[in-house]
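re: that complex we talked abt at group meeting.

here r the seqs, copy pasted straight from the sheet so there may be weird spacing, ignore it
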Amino acid sequence: MMTRLQSHPDPIVQVKGLKTYFYTEEGVVPAIDGVDFEVLRGETLAIVGESGSGKSVTSLSIMRLIPSPPGKIVEGDITFNGESLLTKTNAQMRQIRGNKISMIFQEPMTSLNPVYRVGDQIAESLKLHQGMKKKQALKEAVRLLELVGIPEAERRVSQYPHELSGGMRQRVMIAIALACNPELLIADEPTTALDVTIQNQILHLMKQLKEKTNTSIILITHDLGVVAEVADRVVVMYAGQVVEQGDVYTIFENPKHPYTIGLLESMPSHKKRTGKLKTIEGVVPNPLHLPPGCRFAPRCEFATDLCRSEVPAVITVGQEETVRCWKYTERWEGNLNEHSAV
Amino acid sequence: MSIALFEAQKEQETKTDEVLLSVRNVKKYFPVKGGLFDRVLAHVKAVDDVSFDIHRGETLGLVGESGCGKSTIGKTMLRILNASSGTVEFEGRNIFSLSEKDMRGLRRDMQYIFQDPFSSLNPRLSVGESIARVLRIHGMSRKSEREHRVQELLEMVGLSPYHIRRYPHEFSGGQRQRIGIARALALNPKLIVLDEPVSALDVSIQSQIINLLEDLQKQFNLTYLFVSHGLNVVRHISSRVGVMYLGKLVELAETDTLFAKPQHPYTQALLSANPVADPRQRDEKKMVLEGDVPSPINPPSGCRFRTRCPFATQKCAEVEPAFAKVADNHFVACHYPLN
Ligand SMILES: Nc1ncnc2c1ncn2[C@@H]1O[C@H](COP(=O)(O)OP(=O)(O)OP(=O)(O)O)[C@@H](O)[C@H]1O
Ligand SMILES: Nc1ncnc2c1ncn2[C@@H]1O[C@H](COP(=O)(O)OP(=O)(O)O)[C@@H](O)[C@H]1O
Ligand code: SF4
Ligand code: SF4
Ligand SMILES: [Mg+2]
Ligand SMILES: [Mg+2]
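got the structure back, here u go
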């Protein structure tokens, strides 16, 4: 019954049975607890979930940037182009991070160095990873700033981060991330701190870049609007686990997991402008005291004794979707007919 | 536009809605200090000549990008900040000319709920103490009466009496927002300014708080000014919506009209940039606004939006467009309104 998603012929990233735990004074936080997904070449994979669901820890695990202690990858594997990242030395990882995988963080101000001109920061990356000479690197920096849509790039290269707006700083971060022509770009909430008109510019830019360079993208966000805008496939996380994954149309039009359904229904939209919003009652569980069975059970309207006592397995439904929920298994009593498609 | 013109236009409207609060030509400039002697070098024109009404029992939404002056107008309107000029009338009284003492009485009627549920509660007071203190300051002297009221308020916002003795750090973001709401309700206010009340919360928690706010509004005939940059939330909760840009109100209309037929180019751009949770609509042509919002210290001449407006002409650089009526209940500040 424990069917696993069929592997694609040549994924760029495979995350297999990943567990990343934090050993804190209060106890063990299973931040990532058995996560499986793949990133296909040239696709944008969105990871969505509430704060604390493990989105950032997933991306830091792929980058091998989990702070240790207190964090540790305790089980599973992550492969990049078929090779395990967990067996690489630190020196090898630095090479990969600079040249093949780039990451954009949520808060651009904290990841740019305030005392260096933005042009020098981009050029530094080019000198380091592509072995360019200073003059050539600065010229390339201007080109990259133009590529990410910064007006007056010639003037901007010699400015300091605080002289730029939030949106421009985020675009500089993208320029730095692109400096090495990465095969994979991980963007962790790249637009969360930005206004919608600026967010729109950045999303537009990411779409264009994907078309131009065929970079694979992992986009982490809690905003379903952003997901609908740019993702090809979607991974939905809840309390450290993947509860559902599928292509973007299926997730929005035919979601399976009660949590995904609840999330979509609780969004205000003009179609349901009048009347009450649906809600998911309750709050996410404390990671130190996770419920024994399904982690969503305390908030799920369908929860049964089975849900409360046994962890649901990951089930493949349809072509490419997985869902972690007892409802879609033959052990579900009662409303099998309603879901006879599974 | 002149205040007389604005009033005249208002007159023509069928007067079914009772005005609870009216804002006229309000300006709030913050001094920018610097240099050797800490002189005032310039002013941030955070709110620059804004006029609108709030009707009793309605929810007026206020949207716009970060820094456009939403919070400043909300705070100035309640005299949490002192206005640079203009008037605000609450139930017919100009609150800017009231004495501190009279103002204190009025403060019960007007509450402000802050953006950040984490920072707006005193970490050293239990939830019960936090609310009881508000009650005591405003004259509820009997302890048993206060305790009873605290319990009633917590129930109203969906918290159990068990929470009374807990401290803010023991609550989740959504719960803290509920506590903030309970505290604001303590004195039976008429008007509440809700400044980004759900922006810091997860989607599944946002809808819980929005439903709560709507229930309370019905139950107590509350009037809300709902400030947010989340367009979908504003659309859901507001009866009318105002759009701000760089210290100015650029459009004000009934919610459905504003979203269906925006007439200001900025409103149109803002709506178009708002991501829609429907992947089938992603390829629809979007209006991508170039550039960033200019500095509120030195805003562009004429129309402030002209540096990013695709329709700008010479006139837009020279003449400031009036905030004028284009239809019933619909005001727009643009020389060339759309449609
Ligand atoms: N105390 C202050 N001193 C100086 N400038 C201020 C002060 N408070 C606000 N401002 C400035 O006034 C302008 C309007 O700020 P305001 O906080 O009203 O924006 P907002 O629309 O609420 O933005 P956000 O969506 O980010 O909350 C901004 O340029 C801001 O920097
Ligand atoms: N350095 C750390 N030490 C202890 N716990 C951590 C650390 N980083 C993350 N966590 C915990 O891991 C879980 C997942 O966090 P994170 O991946 O950052 O969530 P998000 O989905 O919001 O990005 C949370 O319970 C968080 O508290
Ligand atoms: S396993 Fe049970 S409790 Fe969990 S989501 Fe499915 S139905 Fe709900
Ligand atoms: S007045 Fe001119 S610049 Fe301003 S919004 Fe209208 S068309 Fe654009
Ligand atoms: Mg995160
Ligand atoms: Mg604000």
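couple things i noticed - Residues A 55-56, 188 surround magnesium ion (ligand 5) (CB under 6 Å). Confidence is low (pLDDT under 50) at residues 11-15 of chain B.
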